[in-house]
Amino acid sequence: MKTESITQKGEQASCHAATPEGIYIISSSSAVEDASQLHWAQQHLRALGWQVQLDGDALAVHQRFAGSDAQRLAAIERALNQPHDVVLSSRGGYGLSRLLPFIDWKAVAQSGKRFVGHSDFTAFNLALLAQTGAISYAGPCAAFDFGVEQPDDLTLDLFHEAMTNQLEVLSFEAEGSDAVDTRGVLWGGNLAMLCSLLGTPYFPQVPYGILFLEDVGEHPYRIERYLNQLWQAGVLAQQQAIILGQFTGYHLAEHDRGYDMQAVIQWLRQTVKKPVVLNLPYGHVPLKATLPIGKKIGVATEDDMAYLLIEEHHHE
């Protein structure tokens, strides 16, 4: 992937830029491992012009979690009532699934806040969409992505542009992708988390959708098993396109005998018969786009490139 080809903005995009306001950082899943991560995150975000505030329990610890269930629910409630527009998750891990039945989803939607995160935060993104139809964002987490001395510059820029409505088109190298030119509601995120919500009130019904997926630490056969579950549940047949992000952190074995992610992708194409777009810059990797879950977007491929139309502005 050549990072210089990741973003493509209209020449007049800057005229739609909003002045950065504020970011409120919460910990709703696993505990933050090192307080310095949130220190670095605040520095990098403030350098972009944002005000940044940490929730009072952002560094709380209870067992593997960022505080007890009650503490983490209270953090989400505080996020709805504080003045900053963006609510950024500190990290993923595990813990949000336990909270879903106790979150006031109507209040979350009515707050107008932009909730952003990835990995375990997929549960929040999809539950909000299923319960209210409101848009939230799959994107970086404060500690995971920005909690280092030198975070990925494009990840920071893409987050900033998405939060200030400057990102019109996301373009990326997508060699081997199927031909597609369509529109639909963008949804998805972490594959394992998405499948964990099947059969619950927190799994969105998205006909004619554009589904994007990523995962980490899952062998290709497990990835295929998740995809097979979605196919047999009738989910994949409803989609306009399937966009695959980064699948990382797994190890092949000798007995795989050539069975790898390419074999999974081949199975997916042959079985589901929907356009498959490859190499979305999203996953448990340093380079990560910020994507609006629940928003109608366009997707097209041409000459080994893929284009996501995020914001449609009509220039005079």
Topology:
Elements lengths: L6 E2 L13 E5 L8 H13 L3 E4 L14 H13 L4 E4 L15 H7 L2 E4 L4 H11 L3 E3 L3 H5 L6 H11 L5 E5 L7 E10 H6 L12 E8 L3 H13 L6 E10 L12 H12 L3 E2 L13 E3 L2 E7 L2 E5 L7
Parallel strand pairs: 2-3, 2-4, 4-5, 5-6, 8-9, 9-10, 10-11
Antiparallel strand pairs: 1-7, 6-12, 7-14, 8-13, 13-14
Helix pairs in contact: 3-4, 8-9
Family: Belongs to the peptidase S66 family.
InterPro entries: Carboxypeptidase_A_C_sf (IPR027461), Class_I_gatase-like (IPR029062), LdcA_N (IPR027478), Peptidase_S66_N (IPR040449), Peptidase_S66C (IPR040921), S66_fam (IPR003507)
Keywords: Carboxypeptidase, Hydrolase, Protease, Serine protease
Describe the protein's architecture and organization.
29% of the residues lie in helices and 23% in strands. With 316 residues, the protein is an alpha/beta fold. The protein folds into 2 domains: 17-163, Rossmann fold (3-Layer(aba) Sandwich), CATH 3.40.50.10740; 169-309, LD-carboxypeptidase A C-terminal domain-like (Glucose Oxidase, domain 1, 3-Layer(bba) Sandwich). The strands form 2 sheets. Strands 1-7-14-13-8-9-10-11 form an 8-stranded mixed sheet. A 6-stranded mixed sheet has the order 3-2-4-5-6-12, with helices on both faces.
